[in-house]
Design a protein that fits this description.
Layout: E1 12-15, H1 46-56, E2 62-64, H2 77-86, E3 90-97, H3 104-112, E4 117-121, H4 127-133, H5 139-155, E5 162-169, H6 177-186, E6 190-195, H7 207-214, H8 221-228, H9 239-242, E7 245-246, E8 252-254, H10 271-275, H11 278-287, H12 303-311, H13 320-343
Parallel strand pairs: 1-2, 1-7, 2-3, 3-4, 4-5, 5-6
Antiparallel strand pairs: 7-8
Helix pairs in contact: 1-2, 2-3, 3-5
Length: about 350
C-alpha cells in the first residue's frame, strides 16, 4: 500500500470551524443530530489552529472552514481569521454558511482579514419560502448581513469576500429561482442553483420550467446520473487527494460527506500520518477501482462510492486533466495571495 499515487502532500485543506448549527433543515444530518453521534458537536479552537500553522511551516496555503455546521457560531472565529491572515493562509467558506447569526465585528473581520469567498445557503427569495427548508432561519436577517458585508467591502476598499447565493431547488421554491437570481445580482453575488440531495422532501413539480430558469441540465440527481452516466458532484471524492476534510478536533474525515467514522490519525499531532495513514490510502485505492471495498472503511457507507462502483466511474486523480487542474489551482492560489496582499494593503 505504499504506492506513490495513494500518498499526498497538499497545500489545501478543509478544516471544519463548527459542527454546530442553529437551523433544522429536514434532510441535513446536522439538523437531525445524526452527525454528532460520531464527529461530535464542537468548534475549532484558536490555540489549536495557531499551533497547527506554526508546526505546518508554510505548507498549507488555503483552508476551507465550512462543512456540516455553521461557521459563524464559532465564538473564536474572529481570532481564527486573524491568525490565518498572520500566517498568510487563505480562508474560504465555499461549502456554505447560513448567515443567520453573526456578530457585526465578525462580518467586518471576514473583509479585514481577506476571507476569499463565502457561499450563502439561501433556498428562496422570501421568508415564506426560505423557512420551509431552512427551518428557524430568518430571510431578512440573512440579506441584511450580506448587505453589511458589502458595506464593509466598500469601507475597506476590498473585493473580498466574493459572495455566492446557493439555491437548492425544491418543489416549494422552484417558482422563485428567477427572483432569487435577480436579488443575487443586485447584491453583487454569483447565483448557484443546486439539485436537492433527495426527492423525499418537496420534489420538483415543473421540470421544464426548472431546467429553463436554473440553467441546469437535470432536475434531480437521478436524472443527472441517467443523462451523464456519472455521479452528481462526484468531484467530492477528489478531496481525498486535493483538499482532505478534517474535523474541528483534528480527526481526518477525508471528504465533506463523511460523518460516519474517521480514517485514524490526527492532523494536529502529525500531518503526514493523518493524511497518509493506511486506512485513507486504502480508501484512495478503492476510489480508483484498484482495491475492493472493505467494511471498515467509511467510503463503503457512501452513496457516491456505491454509485461509482455500479457505474464503474472511478476516480483518476493523476490523469492529464486532473494534473492540469491541480497545477492551475496552485498557480491561482499564488496569484490570489498577491492580489489579496495588494487589496488589503499588506
Amino acid at each position: 500500500m505504499e504506492r506513490d499515487d495513494l500518498r499526498i502532500e497538499t497545500g489545501f485543506l478543509r478544516l471544519e470551524a463548527s459542527t454546530a448549527c442553529q437551523l433544522k433543515c429536514p434532510t441535513c444530518p446536522t439538523g437531525s443530530g445524526e452527525i454528532h453521534k460520531y464527529i461530535g458537536r464542537g468548534f475549532l479552537r484558536k490555540d489549536q489552529f495557531r499551533a497547527f500553522l506554526e508546526q505546518d511551516r508554510g505548507k498549507t496555503r488555503m483552508i476551507e472552514l465550512s462543512n456540516y455546521g455553521e461557521i459563524f457560531l464559532n465564538p473564536q472565529l474572529l481570532d481564527i481569521l486573524k491568525i490565518a491572515s498572520e500566517f498568510g493562509v487563505a480562508l474560504t467558506v465555499r461549502n456554505g454558511a447560513n448567515l443567520n447569526n453573526v456578530r457585526e465585528e465578525v462580518l467586518e473581520g471576514v473583509v479585514q482579514y481577506g476571507v476569499r469567498s463565502i457561499v450563502c445557503s439561501i433556498d428562496g427569495a422570501s421568508q415564506q419560502t426560505y423557512e420551509l427548508y431552512r427551518r428557524n432561519g430568518d430571510f431578512d436577517r440573512v440579506i441584511a448581513n450580506i448587505r453589511k458585508i458589502n458595506e464593509f467591502k466598500k469601507k475597506h476598499h476590498s473585493p473580498y469576500p466574493k459572495l455566492a447565493w446557493q439555491f437548492v431547488i425544491f418543489g416549494h421554491n422552484e417558482h422563485e429561482i428567477t427572483a432569487a437570481r435577480r436579488m443575487a445580482a443586485e447584491l453583487g453575488m454569483e447565483f448557484r442553483p443546486k439539485l436537492s440531495w433527495s426527492d423525499d422532501i418537496s420534489p420538483v413539480q415543473n421540470h421544464e420550467a426548472v431546467l429553463r430558469d436554473s440553467g441546469l441540465q437535470a432536475t434531480t440527481r437521478e436524472h443527472f446520473q441517467e443523462k451523464s452516466k456519472t455521479v452528481y458532484l462526484s468531484d467530492m471524492c477528489d478531496q481525498l487527494w486535493e483538499m482532505p476534510q478534517v474535523n474541528y478536533d483534528g480527526r481526518v474525515l477525508g471528504c465533506c460527506v463523511n460523518y460516519w467514522e474517521d480514517f485514524g490519525g490526527n492532523l494536529f499531532e502529525n500531518y503526514d500520518a493523518a493524511l497518509n495513514g493506511e486506512k485513507i490510502r486504502y480508501a484512495r485505492g478503492m476510489l480508483t477501482g484498484r482495491l475492493p471495498a472493505r467494511d471498515d472503511n467509511p467510503c463503503t457507507r457512501c452513496d457516491t462510492y456505491k454509485a461509482r462502483a455500479q457505474l464503474g466511474a472511478w476516480v483518476h486523480p493523476y490523469s492529464p486533466r486532473k494534473r492540469l487542474k491541480r497545477t492551475a489551482k496552485r498557480l491561482l492560489a499564488f496569484v490570489d495571495r498577491l492580489r489579496c496582499r495588494f487589496a488589503l494593503g499588506a
